[in-house]
Task: structure prediction
Amino acid sequence: MTEAPATWSVPDLGERVADTRFGHIRWFSTLDSTNRYLLEEARGGADAGLVVVADHQEAGRGRLGRVWQSTPDASLLVSVLVRPLTTVARVHLVTVAAAVAMAEAVGRVAGFEPSIKWPNDLVVGDRKLAGVLAEAELGGGEVRAVVVGIGVNVNWEQFPSELGGLATSCSLESGRVVDRRELLAEYLVRFDATLDDVDAAATSYRRRLATLGRRVRVELPSGTLEGVAVDVDYFGQLLVETGPGCIEEIAAGDVVHLRTAH
Ligand code: BTN
Result:
């Protein structure tokens, strides 16, 4: 059973996002997963633009079936419902638009510029600041709805040992406490704009993509490969040159940045 939302509307946020498609925000103290909740709402016919936030998630979902960890009140855990009228081939642009919007929002609110690691991780150096998980509802070869979830480590400073050395947060990078509501407002305003012009967002994504030109190891269910990340194609796949003239197309997998390629 889902707990009733702590706040059904957030007035000061409401003002900031009034002119965007994200006017309706439901902010919960605890949910299992904002993505799970919003997907269910989407299937029940919820309007595009609905935003769901939780102070804490008991079963946060990460990419590739993983768990997304967070500690209460220290992360921004937000999902938005987009009804994009796009083809399956181009749906990755919705996550590109989200990653760029959050990178810009962090720059504005926390004062530092994260890079992007393919596909959509926000990173500072090799440490992960935020991750994006999009879950789509498909029908008739079209994308009916996309729930775009993003988890940002905002004021989290003591990571569990398994994340030690792998994660960072806005407060660690900026040296001050960062306001999650401010970050949310900035994200929604910018996400509204990047969704309006996904081609510009894709250009900005490539500029921030620290993976391009890097030697990478890619961990796939079928095994591991290494090479140089040379491009991202029309479908959002990472192209990795594993040998002369030998290009692997990666649709999903875990990328590790290795030493810089020369
Ligand atoms: C990743 O593995 O990098 C993606 C993590 C996405 C986490 C966010 S937190 C808000 C939303 N709700 C979830 O259950 N997951 C996403």
About this structure: The pocket of biotin is lined by residues 33-35, 57, 60-63, 66, 68, 77-79, 121, 131-133, 149-151 (CB under 6 Å). The radius of gyration is 18 Å.
